[in-house]
Amino acid sequence: MDLVLAKVTQKGQMTIPQELRHMLGVEPGDFVTLRPLMGGLFLSKASVSSHVEPTDVLRRLVVTLGKEAESRGIRDDADLDAVIEDIQQRVYQESYGG
Description:
Layout: H1 18-24, E1 31-37, E2 40-46, H2 54-71, H3 77-96
Antiparallel strand pairs: 1-2
């Protein structure tokens, strides 16, 4: 998927583009998690029920992401920065042929 832009309003709100909502399975009334990640945001659909606190869901997501990063050999911010930079360059090359 190509990069997608979303404009932030004066109230700090933004609309998640329809294509991304469909891809994530996000529907009106659903919750999403936002996690700061190397100068950007990681957004994912959150499963929240009346029996589960949103902070518990976020904590579980962070632990799961940490384990996944470790299994892929990402041990620190520098490793993650390198992966992000590689992906950004690949997307740019695919999009603009440069």
